Amino acid sequence: MCRPQEETKKLEILASFLIELALVDYEMLQYSPSLLAATAVYTAQSTIHGFSEWNNTCEFHSHYSEHQLLECCRRMVRLHQKAATDKLTGVHRKYSSSKFGYITTKYEAALFLVSDSH
Which of 6, 51, 56, 81 has the most CB atoms lying inside 10 A of its own CB? Predict the structure, then answer.
């Protein structure tokens, strides 16, 4: 699926924000780097669009099914949710700047991804 360049940039910045949050969270060490990367893309896509958008192409290139991403995704969404108020707020402040398109002020955590029905 082709995306306009601006939307692709937002996705890239939001995924980078989520990865940086994961890098400073001890519990995220249990996940492999490739799973973290795939989950950051999945979570960013879902956050921007308001629904899960993982498709066969995403699965083919990442080697992860949506189901395999969900546990890590739930943790990542919680990190996003508390990023502004947690002990380590540096990542949130960084991505709240104009250099990163104020991405943290534009998108709230995708809480629908942490519901039990998902």
Answer: 81
